[in-house]
Amino acid sequence: MEIIYTTSVMLGVFGIGGQELLLIIVACLLLFGGKKIPELMRGLGRGVREFKRGQEEAPTAESDNGNEEKLKQNV
Questions:
Q1: pLDDT, position 43
Q2: C-beta of residue 24 within 8 angstroms of C-beta of residue 14
Q3: Which of 2, 36, 59, 75 is geometrically suited to a Cys-Cys bond with 32, CB 3.0 to 4.6 A?
Q4: How far is the C-alpha of 31 from the C-alpha of 36, rounded, in Å?
Q5: What is the pTM of this model?
């Protein structure tokens, strides 16, 4: 029962009920077709993975920016 409660609360936050979610799923199936949806989800997963990888590398990039500012001041 805890899973159902968590899902309903999460959907309630976005203002999406069960009927609206079903309508969105049907619309996606009609627009993209059943064969195209797994490809779209795979691309979305790759994008999320790249975003997380970029977040992990961000602190090292910020420390490099400090060095660039010092070099610009010396020039």
A1: 93
A2: no
A3: 36
A4: 9
A5: 0.46
- In the chain the first and final C-alpha atoms are separated, in Å, by 65
Q: Which amino acid is at 16?
A: I
Q: Is 14 helix (H, G, I), strand (E, B) or coil?
A: coil
Q: How far apart are the C-alpha atoms of 25 and 29, rounded to whole Å?
A: 6
- Residue 52 in tokens: 């997380």
Q: Is the dihedral of CA 54, 57, 58, 62 positive or negative?
A: negative
- Cα–Cα dist 11/14, whole Å: 5
Locate 48 and state its tokens.
């999320």
CA distance 22 to 53: 33
7: part of which helix (H) or strand (E)?
helix 2-13
Measured in whole angstroms, how far is the alpha carbon of residue 15 from the centre of its chain?
Answer: 19
pLDDT given for residue 58 in this prediction: 75
